[in-house]
Amino acid sequence: MTDTELLQHTQSVVLGGGLALGLAFGALAHLGRFCTMGAMADAIGLGSWLRLRAWAIAAATAVVGTQALILLDLIPRGLSLYESSRLLWASHIVGAFLFGVGMVLASGCGVRTLVRIGEGSLKAVVVLLVMALSALLTIRGVLAVLRNSTLETWFVALPHPQTLGLSLSPAAPGLGEVVGMGLAVVVALLALGRGPRLPAALLLSALGIGGVVALGWFVTGHLGYLPEHPLTLEPAFVATHSRGPESLTFVGPPALALEHLLYFSDGTRRWSFGTATIVGVVLGAALVAVARGRFRWDGFRTTQDLSHHLVGGAFMGIGGVVAGGCTVGHGLTGISMLSLGSLISIAGMALGAWAALRWLEARG
Question: How far apart are CA 311 and CA 320, in angstroms?
């Protein structure tokens, strides 16, 4: 196999892996009704912690799987966006809060929006388009200038990647991974042991989703790694937008897919692992929804419903880019790397969602 053939083969593996993992994620999210916003609404409005406990199990599974891959030297340390040595604390707080408010107004986070499209929701199509356009404006447009000149000027420069493992033991990286895995196991046991027994579908969905996140790192960080790129002759991670290892996240990829479609004719845009996963999520949810007889067309019924979803989509697009991730990007993928920024963002999203739910409750 020539170097060019190897590059093309590796690209196919990464893109095919992204599509397959997206299919699995979409199917599992539909089966287990996996939704961070819905889980918070259940806890605040109904006093039911079942779906939040499932989310904790998914996160713990992702941590154990990812940290095990690091310990086995199957994926690298310190090269993903979640491990930057610049801790953008202001961006994490403000962006995550906006995202949390947005996902409540839009009836679900980024991945829930994709799953709802697969289930037949036309409302979710509108939310996705608004979120993608808002994210693109924040990545490259007028809002990017504002983001770079304000929030991103406030950060803490760390002497090492911003992971819990390296923060605990910078001289002995392996110890940090073991501690992180141990904490994740404790969290999972607490989530399993407290309260009513989790339904089997919800538990299996959580375990599967956590496993998919870990496999995402393996696909991009191991299968997609070339020690010598045939064009640059340098080490490279193939078919990822960040040019580093990635796993699942659902704000940036819709924006990049929209950009790809808008500028398709110039030939400079390429599909990546992230954009392949969003196609997979919609297809996976749609296949299972049709098979179970759960596919239903759904649209807006009032102008207030429309306005909430428009504002919610915009807040998610802007907030997700500013924070550097969504409820999956930080809540599962970032946390699987034990990222300190992801911990801050999770708290910000929870606070934003709580505030929005209380606001809607006060309005009746």
Answer: 14
Tell me how crowded residue 9 is: count the other CB atoms within 10 A of its CB.
Answer: 12
Local structure of residue 199 (DSSP, 8 states)? P
**What per-residue confidence (pLDDT) applies to 82?**
95
| C-alpha closest to that of 247 among 221, 225, 271 | 221
φ/ψ of 271, rounded to 5, equals -70, 150
Distance in angstroms (rounded) separating the CA atoms of residues 280 and 254:
12
Instruction: Assess whether pLDDT exceeds 70 at residue 315.
Output: yes
Identify the DSSP state of 198. P
The reply to whether the predicted model has a pTM over 0.90 is yes
Q: Where does the chain have alpha helices with state H? A: 3-31, 36-41, 50-71, 89-105, 110-118, 122-139, 142-149, 164-168, 173-193, 200-218, 252-262, 273-291, 303-323, 335-336, 340-362
pLDDT greater than 70 at residue 128: yes
Written as six digits, the tokens of 85 are 């040595």
Which is higher by pLDDT, 138 or 362? 138
Q: Which of 358, 353, 336 is nearest to 65 (CA)?
A: 336
How long is the chain?
Answer: 364
- Report the alpha-carbon angle 249-256-281, nearest 5: 45
Cα dihedral: 130, 131, 133, 137 (round 10): 130
Strand partners, 225: 237
DSSP category for residue 142? H
pLDDT tens per residue across span 40-51: 888 888 888 999
Yes or no: say if 50 and 42 are a contact pair by the CB < 8 Å rule: yes
Residue 157's DSSP bridge partners are 86
Residue type, 222: H
Instruction: Report angle CA 92, 171, 182 to the nearest 5 degrees.
Output: 65
Closest C-alpha among 341, 317, 348 to residue 152:
341
Q: List 298's β-bridge partners, or say none.
A: 121
Euclidean distance between CA atoms 219 and 202, whole angstroms: 25
Q: What is the largest CA-CA distance in the chain?
A: 65
State residue 232's pLDDT score.
Answer: 79
